[in-house]
Amino acid sequence: MSLVDSHCHLDRLDVTAHPNGLEGALAQASEQGVGELLCVSINWENFPIVQSLAAQHEQVYATVGVHPNDREGHEPSLDELIQGAQLPKVIGVGETGLDYFRSGEGERAGQQARFRRHINAAKAVNKPLITHSREASKDTLRILREEGADQVGGIMHCFVDDWKTAEQAMELGFYISFSGILTFSSATQVREVAERVPAERMLIETDAPYLAPVPHRGKPNYPAYVRHVAEKLAEIRKTRLDQIAKTTRANFMQLFSLV
Fold it and tell me: What is the CATH number of the domain that holds 209?
């Protein structure tokens, strides 16, 4: 059985819990059956670290992007994003998108412009988008359509919206990725989507070091814990863990042309 953590932030892990630091965290993931990990960039300053981690570890891949809530760092141009996306083992563009939960009205125009720039970078290099959407599903879908994101598709990362939103995202060629939120008792809407999403469009992730699943909720998250997400998804869909692992890994490999 081989699992994929389709979204984590290795550059931000608290590795003090592991005797061998990051190597210990990666070894722990391997022991839990995690064969591949996607280390997702969320600001320009850390992107060289993200790309370097992928270059140094066979099982790690990287993306290039700036999170919608990043306010302090460099704002990469379209050309800079394109150049970053062409580096070795950089297989996607993002984390990008819209987050209205932590943003005021005055920040929305800037987020939307950044989002459009990332979509155009993804189209220029023909690589998938890793999309973040929080309390912004209507605008997220609208901008994906307006900018022709269906040309590259991608992932709706850490999905928390309703079935109607999932359907519209899938129509644009996006996969629905479930995080540790799936294990939370309050996540009724997410579990309903997890039950209904076609097998060929589902992925799993940790978003480590954030959003640790039950039974680690409230503690630092690690890629090894993607197994808990897979187990919960298997329970919801009334299938075996090894089938969830096989299906989600195949989906990941197909989306990023790694087959």
Answer: 3.20.20.140
Q: What pLDDT, on the 0 to 100 scale, is given for residue 74? A: 98
Pure H helices in 66-107? 78-85
**Which value, in Å, is the radius of gyration of the alpha carbons in the chain?**
17
- What is the rounded CA–CA span in Å between residue 156 and residue 49? 24
Q: Distance (Å, rounded) from C-alpha 13 to C-alpha 239?
A: 31
- What is the distance, to the nearest Å, from the Cα of residue 171 to the centroid of all Cα atoms in its chain? 19
Domain that holds residue 110: 3-255
Q: 246 phi and psi, to 5 degrees?
A: -60, -45
pTM above 0.85, yes or no: yes
Total number of domains in the chain: 1
- The tens digit of pLDDT for each residue in 81-134 reads 999 999 999 999 999 999 999 887 889 999 999 999 999 999 999 999 999 999
